Amino acid sequence: MTTPQTTARRVPAELPESIQHYIGGRFVDSVDGDTFDVLDPVTNQTYLQAAAGKKADIDLAVAAARKAFTEGPWPRMLPRERSRVLHRIADLVESRDERLAELESFDSGLPITQALGQARRAAENFRFFADLIVAQTDDAFKVPGRQLNYVNRKPIGVAGLITPWNTPFMLESWKLGPALATGNTVVLKPAEFTPLSASLWAGIFEEAGLPEGVFNLVNGLGEDAGDALVKHPDVPLISFTGESSTGQLIFGNAAPFLKGLSMELGGKSPAIVFADADLDAAIDATIFGVFSLNGERCTAGSRILVQRDVYDAFVERYAAQADRVKVGYPDDPETEVGALVHPEHYAKVMSYVELGKTEGRLVAGGGRPEEFPEGNFVRPTVFADVSPDARIFQEEIFGPVVAITPFDTDEEALALANNTKYGLAAYVWTSDLKRAHNFAQNVEAGMVWLNSNNVRDLRTPFGGVKASGLGHEGGYRSIDFYTDQQAVHITLGPAHNPTFGKAPGH
User: Which of its termini does the chain have fewer beta carbons within 10 Å around, N or C?
Assistant: First the structure.
């Protein structure tokens, strides 16, 4: 059972009552004055009004970003100069990590300790790309005495960044860092459910010395502001993180403009536990892998496949540990699962919980905690004996809900792991090194962790296959996405020119 809630909820001091756009270095209302409600996920009460951007606001933001790109200093700065600004941004984020985490936790429902980790990771994202852009080298090739070839890497222009509501501040930094490091200007459209922490970027960037117009922010609904950004002819790049169905719409809307696209989409990632695995480590990792961040994480290992020899023991221990996961107010440092982000999302997750009761054996959770009659709270929920054709096995729930399914052989485990439309991540638990590497080779996933939780080296590619994404970001892949690579060829000897139309006698 969940632990009774004993602490009183704390609300952050000095919460704003409204949020504006940030365009061309100034905070502004929407052109038409429209706003939308932003809800506190613990009470589902409106706590602020955010400016609701539409095409006219996107047009202004893109114009400001385009002017900063064509006339401003940022794209023409030396990498070291841009790096210094990015390091100052990282310093400012680090110095404000507690305030950022407090606001993020309040706005999104994330547990405060996890929100603090995400704030610090945001600083590290800027620091990483600040270093990478200085260390960046490009190809040069020489044919002795004949030819020299080298590559110019150039920023592309205005990057449109569309970010999700789970860990919003960190995921914004994941796009802002490389886009700015490479000399582009940006228009950010944050998720409408969680605009609070995004509103802090403007002050951080101003204080760090980012030139006016390089960063622009337009709040609003995806079908209004997001759609206008994707369809704007002066935005050659779109980086999007979110649902696969939204990614399909963006792909179609961007196609007439032949835009560069990077899309990190949904997941239904398997965690495969073989009988020879370290069960203590596997249980801890798979509990954390689906219940951290309230289960609202694209790489969640939400399908656990367990070899039959250890299946019953695993299910029993896993269910008991899931029941001990602490559900509580997001601001409580003891909380491990907070409130889901929004009542719409809560209703979706709860509909899957009810569906799961017809598709599997409920062994933990299955409803709202008794001590939280209001708000978007869901007990960590575990279904065992789930068939691979069940909807809770196939569809992304994006909440603290997990399906456990048995398997007998390595071949069956691989078939089950690959048996969804998604392919973002996979986790393999075994003490057999050959099996681990061969399974990783054959599983349909953009990222695989062997005997490991989701721990990332920022130099590695991040992205999925199948319905989980298009392209990769991370390390040099991000640099590639946000730059054009121009090949320059120089003849070092006599010009090698086949002559057409040669005059007689010559």
Answer: C
